[in-house]
Amino acid sequence: MDELFIIAGRKENSWIGICISDDGRLVCSTIPMLDLKDTLVCILNVLQKFRIQRPLNVSMLAFRDIRDRYFKTIKNSRDVHFVPISKLPRNLRRRSEKYIYKLWSAWTSGGVKFSEREVYIMDKIPRFDKEVLSITMKIPRGFVTTYGEISKVIAGTNRYARKVARILARNPLPLVIPCHRVIMKDRSLGGYSYGVQHKWNLLTREGIPISEKGLVPNEYIIRAEELLLLLSNPQ
């Protein structure tokens, strides 16, 4: 059984939470959040949703900013152990710092890419789900695609668009797997687990003009044929 580590790091006035496996891969993550308690609860909720195994170890990259009152909801759990950051294995601490820095950069500019090798769940989910996430990771900054176009790449038809949408709605790694870059066929933004306003803000920061009606211009939408070309590119 893998040992999992939840780590919260502070950037400016926000917290970013991640969960990594003992081999240094990302299990789940949050977007930047103002409240530390909300950050940790969000990570725990994702782990529960995916029924990911325990035990868990909680460490903080900004340990001096922590107060016990934040942990009342989870501190008494026998499955959760609080580990000072100094006790975290050096390789995991370095990985954690790198991940949190990359997530912050992805949030502020969108120009950061992650590798599938860094994603824990890739070899633990059904093939269709993996293909959806793999394609989503290939969508470049400044562009979007639709749920239907991803369905076309995988199955040759857009009939599985809703299935694609359901998979991305459960994405445990927003920003790592940039599901905010997938929209509806009518060019509207669709949903986002952290709220559509965050989706709007992310796309705007990445250079996509969104109309007052919430629509993305056609020229920013990557179609199935272009997605296939991106998938054939190893970069």
Radius of gyration: 18 Å
Going across the biggest sheet, name each strand in turn: 3-2-1-4-5
| Binned strand content | 5-15%
Helix content: 25-40%
Q: Order of SSEs, N→C?
A: EEEHEEHHEHHEHH
DSSP, total strands: 7
Question: What would CATH call the class of the largest domain?
Answer: Mainly Alpha
**Given the C-alpha coordinates, what overall shape results?**
globular
Distance between the termini: 33 Å
CATH architecture of the largest domain: Orthogonal Bundle
Question: What's the domain count?
Answer: 2
CATH superfamily of the largest domain: Winged helix-like DNA-binding domain superfamily/Winged helix DNA-binding domain
In the predicted model, the low-confidence regions spanning at least 5 consecutive residues are: 60-78
Q: Can you tell me the CATH topology of the largest domain?
A: Arc Repressor Mutant, subunit A
Give the structural class: alpha/beta
Mean pLDDT: 84
Number of helix segments? 7
How would a crystallographer describe the biggest sheet? 5 strands, mixed
Topology:
Layout (H helix, E strand, L loop, with lengths): L3 E8 L2 E8 L4 E4 L6 H14 L6 E5 L19 E3 L7 H19 L18 H12 L6 E2 H9 L5 H9 L12 E2 L12 H10 L18 H9 L3
Parallel strand pairs: 1-4, 4-5, 6-7
Antiparallel strand pairs: 1-2, 2-3
Helix pairs in contact: 4-5, 4-7
Any key phrases for this structure?
235 residues, alpha/beta, Nucleotidyltransferase, domain 5, Arc Repressor Mutant, subunit A, 2 domains, five-stranded mixed sheet, two-stranded parallel sheet, 14% strand
Task: Give a short synopsis of this structure.
It is built from 7 helices and 7 strands; from the N terminus they run E-E-E-H-E-E-H-H-E-H-H-E-H-H. By secondary structure, it is an alpha/beta fold.
